[in-house]
Amino acid sequence: MTGMHGLFGLILSLAAFGPTAPVPSMAVATPEPATASPQQARDPWPGRPNPPLYRSNPRGYTVGLAVDFGTERFLMAGGAIVMDVATVDTTVVADLRGLEASVRINGTPVTPGLKIEGDAASGQQRVTLTLPKGKSTAAISTRTTWPAIAFDIAVDEAAASRVTWPREWPESVRPYLAASEIIQSNDEIFKAFIEKTTNGRLRRTPIYVAAKELVRSTILQFGNVEGGSLYQEGDGRIVGFQLQGAVAATSALQATPADMVCTCVAVLRAAGIPARPVIGIHSGDGDSKDSKRPKGRRTFCCWAEFHLPGAGWVPFDPFEMRGQGLRQADITRPWRWFGTIDSMNRRVGIAYDFAPFNHGRVLGYPAGWVYRLESSDPIIGFGLPITSIQMIGRGTVRP
User: Fold this and answer.
1) pLDDT digit of tens for each residue in the chain (399 aa)?
2) Domain boundaries, the chain
3) What is the CATH code of the structural domain delimited by 168-336?
């Protein structure tokens, strides 16, 4: 295995990508010129945001997913596991040149076919792990890991509140304006909700303030929210995220944190603000006492981001925001778990959707990957695959 110093050297070498470029063609100058903090000036990694968005306190990890189909009846007709892995973001940098993958058939290691596609600087890359054909009695176990760095995030609220709407969004963020399978932002219910919430003044409100109010109003619509999003086997093994999708969640008697993320993202997209879900791995430590995340153990989690013109992606966690006195919160003041998150470096984003739905089949519940069948033979007799998160903390990272 490559030494960890070498792995983070790989990430550091990506700094040639440079910091996020300012968005062109703005209606008015967006963030006012600001001098980077000394810590920000020392940030050599790609995806570094521009003021009024700042990141700091980088921590290193090895992260990934292991998938165990766990059945002796699975038909290995020649298929592949497909993941769209987050590589460059405000909150995380990953280097898939350090990716390691393994496959076991009935417990015996086999050589997998591995393909990594796309430009790391674009923000994500597709990883395809091709499985060799085998007997119908084969049980399959896969493991994929890669090095990553996570950062704390801070927002200058006063400066962010002066950022105006762009005349047009850059091509790189336009995909996050579109409706998707579980984020049906083109549904009329969201259009009506936005009109009611903003009293028709959406585009006359600075974009950061508008996003803040829309997220608050969306969260306040949820009455009963479960304490977690994961569907698990009786022994606690993870199968995937339980979610109904944005539209169904608006009328559900009970929702999950993942449903809240989908709905907030749908509302922001419907308002014309690029937004996306993020699924990731939480380390189980470093959060403040008011965090609802499990203490002392690693777990899958999800949150959301929206794009602030000229600055970068702003994270927020609807589940953590709930119960923080949102109804009376002063919109001009910082809110817990929105923008400024001083424990963001304790979670690592691994994907910008719950699964790459358009590139294969979700077997059971979405968990960051899909199965792509390479033959016309049907998949028979599979049980619910078990997805295990992989995370090793490497401590503080220095340039």
Assistant:
1) 334 444 445 454 444 333 333 333 333 334 444 455 555 667 899 999 999 999 999 999 999 999 988 654 555 566 889 999 999 999 999 999 999 999 988 888 988 899 999 999 999 999 999 887 765 556 788 999 999 999 999 999 999 999 999 999 999 999 999 999 899 999 999 999 999 999 999 999 999 999 999 999 999 999 888 888 888 865 667 889 999 999 999 998 889 999 999 999 999 999 999 999 999 999 887 656 667 666 778 889 999 999 999 999 999 999 999 988 999 999 999 999 999 998 999 999 999 999 999 888 888 899 999 988 765 555 555 567 889 999 999 999 987
2) 4-151+352-396, 168-336
3) 3.10.620.30
Residue whose entry in the numeric block shows the structure tokens 């460059």 = 88
Contacts 24+ apart (CB under 8 A), 331-334: 331/209, 331/212, 331/213, 331/216, 332/157, 332/161, 333/157, 334/155, 334/157
pTM exceeds 0.85 for this model: yes
Nearest to 61 by CA among 366, 284, 353: 284
